[in-house]
Amino acid sequence: MRLLTCTGLGFLLAVLWFDLMFDVQAWKFTTDQVPENIRESIATYYARVTTSARPMNLAVASMMLVTLVSEVGTMIEAQISLWRSLVTISLTLGAIALAASHTVPTARRIGARIDDAQHHSLLIRSVLRDHRICFVTIFVVLLLQLMS
């Protein structure tokens, strides 16, 4: 179970890394409008990965579910301490909830290019923030799994 958990976490970190490779283009524009060429690059990426890549985009959601179920299995089999299991499950659930409730819908909106430049910039910065939070969270969960 732990091998499956760590594999899932590694997959999710890789996906977040690719997302961040596009997001970081907007890093230095903390309050200013993100330039058009950068907004276009990010929007093209999110249009591809959130909608036009079907059914491959479902792999990420599937791996989230597999990872969470394997974390529960690891807890049931007592492969790691109970406190560590509860922390990893909670952190993983938090990252998944953030992705499902905000990050993915916002990334779809970025890809759709339906907002004015100022709002589009705001959305891009919010997805960058979400991805940074999720990357750190999933990395911590992986460390907790590996250190036990």
> How would you spell out the order of helices and strands?
HHHHH
- What does the main sheet amount to? none
Q: Please give the radius of gyration in angstroms.
A: 17 Å
The DSSP helix count reads 5
Mean pLDDT: 95
Which shape, going by the Cα principal axes?
Answer: elongated
- Number-wise, the strands total 0
Secondary-structure blueprint:
Blueprint: H1 2-23, H2 36-52, H3 58-76, H4 82-112, H5 117-146
Helix pairs in contact: 1-3, 1-5, 2-4, 3-4, 4-5
Describe this structure in words.
By secondary structure, the protein is mainly alpha-helical. It has one domain. Helix content is 80%, strand content 0%. It is built from five helices and no strands. Helix 2 (36-52) packs across helix 4. 30% of the residues are buried. The mean pLDDT is 95.
Which features characterize this protein?
148 residues; mainly alpha; 80% helix
Give a short overview.
The protein has helices at 2-23, 36-52, 58-76, 82-112, 117-146. It has 148 residues and is mainly alpha-helical. It has one domain.
